[in-house]
Write a structure and sequence with these properties.
CATH superfamily: Glucose-6-phosphate isomerase like protein, domain 1
CATH topology: Rossmann fold
Number of strands: 5
Shape: globular
CATH architecture: 3-Layer(aba) Sandwich
Strand content: 5-15%
Radius of gyration: 17 Å
Oligomer: single chain
Order of helices and strands: HHHEHEHHEHEHEH
Length: 195
């Protein structure tokens, strides 16, 4: 039996799907609906939503920024001003090189964000220093902070205004849940009729 065969024996697609299914069926989704109301307020006041994350979560941040920019309101009637802080590689490498990787998101918020804006962090562990610094900077700026977190929620869970926490010790399922929550938000926002 080679290494690939041994890996396949340890991993089960059915077990993965069942774990995700159990989480989806047992989660209280009311916090996602509350978050949708917060985003509705951001749309009404013409404030901005900033999203950040590392690795796969950075990719999810860009995916959700796309969904929130266009998918929520293709006709622009109720468009959400949104930016993924992980999207500009020139900015990320400049800030990482000159200020340190832990400042790649917080420095962008320091320059761009305003009171009334909202920060969404995506993190498996909730312990990445650049995520923690982003939350701290957001609080200084008077932003509301939300996080979609896995594992035990880490430091982020303790300092966010609204942690949406999934107690699962699996990075891939944690990242799946970031997109699922994001897609739920998109659907909720696209159904809202604004005054």
């Amino acid at each position: 039996m080679d290494a690939t065969d041994r890996f396949m024996k340890k991993f089960s697609c059915n077990e993965y799907a069942q774990t995700l299914s159990v989480i989806l069926s047992e989660t209280d989704w009311s916090s996602v609906e509350i978050f949708a109301d917060k985003l509705k307020s951001v749309i009404k006041t013409k404030n901005h939503l900033y999203i950040c994350g590392n690795g796969g979560s950075a990719g999810n941040a860009m995916h959700l920024a796309n969904d929130f920019l266009y998918g929520v309101s293709p006709n622009l009637a109720n468009a959400l001003k949104v930016e993924a802080l992980s999207a500009n590689s020139s900015v990320l490498t400049c800030l990482g090189n000159d200020l340190g990787y832990d400042s790649i998101f917080s420095r962008q918020l320091k320059v761009k964000a305003e009171k009334g804006d909202l920060l969404l962090v995506l993190s498996g562990s909730g312990n990445s220093s650049n995520i923690i610094k982003a939350i701290e900077e957001a609080k200084i700026k008077g932003m509301y902070t939300v996080g979609i977190l896995g594992f035990d929620g880490g430091k982020a869970k303790e300092i966010l205004d609204m942690p949406i926490h999934f107690d699962i010790n699996d990075m891939q399922i944690s990242e799946d849940l970031q997109l699922i929550v994001g897609h739920m938000l998109m659907k909720l926002l696209s159904k809202i009729h604004y005054d």
